[in-house]
Design brief:
Elements lengths: L1 H24 L9 H20 L3 H5 L2 E3 L3 H20 L4 H22 L3 H6 L3 E3 L7 H11 L1 H11 L20 H14 L3 H8 L5 E6 L6 H10 L2 H6 L2 E8 L3 H9 L5 H13 L11 H14 L10 E6 L10 H8 L5 H17 L8 E6 L14 H8 L4 E6 L13 H9 L3 E5 L23 H4 L2 E5 L7 E3 L9 H10 L2 H16 L3 E3 L6 H39 L1
Helix pairs in contact: 1-2, 1-23, 2-4, 4-5, 7-23, 9-19, 11-15, 14-15, 17-18, 21-22
Length: 571
């Protein structure tokens, strides 16, 4: 039993030390090798190297465990089961297969351990393992291992507190505490410099080939992306060439009110802002209040662009596409959830409204037959949804040769950066935060898609989902602005009533928000800079280091005591 626990401890030490070796390996890791696959690859290399050095693993050597029979066969079986086999499976980007892998590795070992008192590797290799008390490990080996094991701690501590300036403490990759490949970073930089275009020119160029261009919006609250949308849309080039924008924001049943608002001539700036606030707060799906300032500023500026001169003929028309549901018949949270969360055909409804708008433009001789669509994240993630199809799937099926989709750089819904922050780091190195890349001729499109980590997105590359990417602003500059002028004008009682429908907790929270909104019209925060994942990965680092440190200290102290005993015995 003592030998069994010693062997299990050795294996854990070997795997932990492989994790330590993975850390410097990430500086040269090819981008196409996923993180977990890279780990198992390092495990394979580690076991092979230590076999040629010690005829066993490093920690089997430290803890004086000897492979008595067939050491070569046993080592290669061990490499296959613990390194190569997991590497191949995890390289396939499948959560299901990775789970199956764990079952395949653990269950046979439990079975053979109970029946044969051996691991599955020993059984296959017909090997035996025993303690060899005559082997004396060299202390300088242990010291070297200790120094290597400190690499994650040293690098992360320096990165967080020492080298980088305060302006760079929000690097995307610092959230996950992992180094980024120097080679891959250089490859990305070369590709971006070679293929980058002006973002506005790139999107407009797509309209030469496609009738419908979909922009994959970041998370709804992010403000700076709407600065780019305004630059793209609110100008005469767009108005003359396209002229129509369809947004996920806005319930389609409120389209008549939107058109009335856009055609009304208001007597004052105050009346215009009040009307804009009324449009925005009532069209944020079925939330009691839509408080994001980005869409408010966009609609207000859209109105001002269309009314910039009395004789203006170049205008932009906005179309709402979301579900046509209202608060009129909702009296309980259950009814609200049935509409808001459980409507299975929302993407289909949005797509139907967009298709209807496009067909109407095609049938109107006075229109260009072009349409820009702005929808949020997963609604533009083509052909990866596990159950319901995304909005863009319906558009691509209806108009396969007329639809293009462009990704706006962002984060996952868990605020993790795309490509582990690599594209963000390259933009920092190039000092260029506004560029576009077409994936057709650029290798960036061959990168595996990682913004929606579900099984059905496995093995999908960015070019399979998008025609290209618009990179606009570094995540350190992402921000949310919430609250706008006249947002609560004649609306407080309605908001409290709707909030009460959603429950006491929601009502209490909205009462606090109302008090805050009344103190200031607008608030800004950096919600996209949460670094909670940094804590997660740092915790893993520290657990690995503590575990290795304890085991190495035991060996180190034991050898010192043994040498001391031998010295006094000789004396």
């Amino acid at each position: 039993m003592k030998l069994l626990f010693c062997r299990i401890n050795c294996l854990l030490c070997d795997l932990c030390f492989s994790y330590v070796l993975l850390y410097p390996f990430l500086f040269i890791k090819p981008s196409y090798i996923p993180f977990f696959s890279a780990y198992f690859l390092v495990v394979s290399i580690y076991f092979l190297i230590t076999y040629f050095l010690f005829k066993r693993s490093l920690f089997q050597y430290f803890f004086k465990i000897e492979i008595a029979r067939n050491p070569k066969v046993y080592t290669f079986v061990k490499v296959a089961l613990i390194g190569l086999f997991p590497f191949i499976l995890t390289y396939m980007h499948s959560i299901t297969i990775t789970t199956l892998l764990l079952v395949l590795l653990v269950l046979p070992n439990i079975f053979t351990g109970l029946i044969r008192r051996k691991s599955i590797g020993q059984v296959i290799a017909r090997a035996s393992i025993q303690r060899n008390l005559n082997v004396v490990p060299k202390i300088y080996y242990i010291i070297g291992v200790c120094l290597i094991a400190l690499i994650p701690f040293i690098h992360q501590s320096v990165k967080e507190y020492g080298i980088y300036s305060k302006e760079k403490t929000y690097f995307s990759n610092t959230r996950i505490s992992l180094p980024l490949s120097v080679l891959t970073k250089a490859k990305y930089a070369n590709n971006i410099v070679k293929h980058k275009e002006n973002p506005k020119d790139y999107v407009m160029r797509l309209f030469d080939k496609y009738d419908i261009v979909v922009l994959c919006e970041r998370l709804h609250p992010e403000y700076t992306q709407w600065e780019f949308f305004s630059q793209l849309i609110l100008n005469d080039d767009f108005a003359d060439k396209v002229g129509h924008v369809c947004t996920e924001f806005g319930r389609s049943c409120n389209q008549p009110q939107l058109e009335k608002y856009l055609s009304t001539v208001f007597d004052s700036e105050e009346e215009l802002k009040k009307a804009t606030a009324a449009i925005v707060r009532e069209n944020g799906s079925l939330w009691p209040l839509w408080d994001n300032k980005n869409i408010y500023d966009f609609i207000l500026n859209l109105y001002k662009y269309n009314h910039r001169t009395k004789d203006s003929c170049s205008q932009v028309m906005l179309h709402f596409s979301d579900i046509a549901k209202t608060w009129n018949n909702i009296t309980s949270r259950e009814e609200w959830e049935n509409v808001f969360y459980r409507i299975e055909s929302r993407d289909s409804i949005m797509a139907t409204n967009i298709i209807h708008t496009y067909n109407r433009l095609l049938n109107d001789d006075t229109e260009k037959g072009k349409l820009l669509v702005v929808v949020n994240t997963r609604h533009a993630f083509k052909d990866i949804m596990p159950k319901d199809r995304a909005c863009i799937d319906y558009l691509c099926k209806a108009f396969p040769s007329k639809t293009a989709c462009v990704l706006i750089n962002g984060t996952t819904q868990l605020l993790m950066p795309m490509k582990s922050g690599m594209w963000d780091e390259v933009s920092l190195a190039l000092n260029d935060f506004s560029w576009a890349i077409d994936f057709e001729n650029c290798s960036l499109g061959n990168e595996f898609f990682d913004l929606f980590p579900i099984p059905t997105s496995n093995n999908r590359k960015y070019k399979n989902l998008f025609n290209g990417i618009v990179y606009y602003e570094h995540p350190s500059n992402f921000q949310r602005e919430y609250g706008y002028e006249y947002m609560l004008e004649n609306f407080k009682d309605t908001l409290l009533h709707r909030s009460a429908v959603l429950g006491d907790n929601y009502l209490a929270r909205e009462k606090q928000n109302i008090s805050r909104y009344e103190l200031m019209a607008t608030e800004t925060d950096k919600v996209f800079l949460f670094k909670i994942f940094n804590i997660l990965f740092l915790t893993i680092h520290y657990i690995v280091l503590v575990f290795l440190g304890i085991n190495l200290a035991i060996v180190f102290i034991r050898e010192l005591l043994k040498q001391r005993t031998k010295k006094f015995g000789t004396a």
